[in-house]
Amino acid sequence: MRTIIEKIDRAQLNSEESTNIIKKAGEILKKGGLVAFPTETVYGLGADGLNENAAKKIYAAKGRPSDNPLIIHITDMAALGRIAKKIPEAAVRIAGKYWPGPLTMIFEKTDAVPYGTTGGLDTVAVRMPEDDIAAAVIRAGGGYIAAPSANTSGRPSPTKARHVKEDLEGRIDMIVDGGPTEIGVESTILDMTADPPMILRPGAVTREMLEELAGPVCVDKAVIAPESKERPKAPGMKYRHYAPRAELCIIEGEMEAVADAVNRMAEEKFACGYKIGIIGTDETLGKYKKGIVKSIGTREDEAVIANRLYGILREFDEENVDYIFSEAFPTGGIGSAVMNRLLKAAGHHVIYI
Ligand code: AMP
Ligand code: MG
User: Fold this and answer.
1) Which of 14, 48, 238, 319 is the most exposed place for a label (fewest CB within 10 A)?
2) In angstroms, what is the span from residue 327 Cα to ligand 1's centroid?
């Protein structure tokens, strides 16, 4: 299959050129095809979420296990009523503040949603993204677009159109290139069928932000526990995920001690002929002696770290490194989402110094 790749200028979304690209994307989606498009979190791989055959194509293109449900993306509250039932008052309050935005909520599904979209579950995950290009594509495609991250299953999520192309060119109908994504890690997932509501995956909308609106909110134990111990409530979170091809190890502890330990381990691997990558920060970059050293950003700003995470993992893949050593990062704000993804990418391989 030939994949159409179209660049779109988000500053000129109303131009004739942009309108034609969105129209084309909408036609493909309405016919049951696959279109990747940017959202504020990561690039999504869209299909008509109410068309079981279309949703199934997503699983085939990504190599995604069929029990890993898809999030349906909408652009208005009226659409929510068609796909979800028993919407609690707290959800309406949360939606009032964080929709559109990087938050997914889980509800009981209506009959309009095929089991092929929900991985056989009676619940449905719903998000209203803020990105203007995403909203335009969703509207053009009929308003109910199932869209998981547009990567091959298991690989780091795409934050640039180039990443989507690397993984999915030839397997999907179209890529809408809207430039790099703003946030860089996937949405927070909040299960509204639980009482109190439960975070199944951390993201840019934090527990504190949600508790301010909805009272107590729990966090699924599997968010931080190694996968063998806890079975996550979000089926997708049980798979090895977000992972580079190299073996990734996180080293956690006081800054100087971490640098010393990384230098020692890097030296050992280097002596055996391996290629090493190191993920440091602006504050620590000068401390590392061997290997390809990259700064993920400053320790002062978790949002920058979130934004760089997947890109750095993919860069190390391109450079064919065998081992990646990474610092652990601050967990304030979106930092807990960063550490959740990094731990999964490392298969929970952490050395505490
Ligand atoms: P992705 O779209 O690739 O970021 O993955 C979507 C995530 O949402 C996966 O971890 C899914 O398991 C999770 N998810 C989607 N629908 C549901 C649902 N109904 N219940 C629990 N988790 C869900
Ligand atoms: Mg994903």
Assistant:
1) 14
2) 28
CA distance 292 to 281: 13
The single-letter DSSP state of residue 149 is: B
Q: Which segments of the chain are extended strands (E)?
A: 4-7, 35-37, 44-48, 71-73, 84-85, 103-109, 123-127, 145-146, 174-177, 188-191, 198-201, 218-219, 247-252, 276-280, 292-295, 323-327, 350-352
Please tell me the distance between residue 148's alpha carbon and the centre of ligand 1 in angstroms.
Answer: 8
Does ligand 1 have an atom closer than 6 angstroms to the CB of 126?
Answer: no
* Pairing state between β 323-327 and 247-252: parallel
Tens digits of pLDDT across the chain (353 residues): 999 999 999 999 999 999 999 999 999 999 999 999 999 999 999 999 999 999 999 999 999 998 999 999 999 999 999 999 999 999 999 999 999 999 999 999 999 999 999 999 999 999 999 999 999 999 999 999 999 999 999 999 999 999 999 999 999 999 999 999 999 999 999 999 999 999 999 999 999 999 999 999 999 988 877 765 677 788 877 777 788 899 999 999 999 999 999 999 999 999 999 999 999 999 999 999 999 999 999 999 999 999 999 999 999 999 999 999 999 999 999 999 999 999 999 999 999 99
Residue nearest to atom 9 of ligand 1 (CA): 236
Nearest CA to ligand 1 atom 13: 234
Contacts of 281 (CB under 8 A, 6+ apart): 295, 296, 297, 298, 299, 305, 327, 329
Is 303 a pocket residue for ligand 1 (Cβ < 6 Å)?
no
Q: Which residue is closest in CA terms to ligand 1's atom 7?
A: 236
Strand partners, 251: 327, 351
Tell me, in angstroms, the distance from the centre of ligand 2 to residue 155's CA: 8
Which of the ligands is closest to the CA of residue 148? 1
Task: Pick the atom of ligand 1 nearest to 201's CA.
Answer: 10
User: Are β-strands 123-127 and 145-146 bridged in parallel, bridged antiparallel, or unpaired?
Assistant: unpaired
The structure's pTM equals 0.95
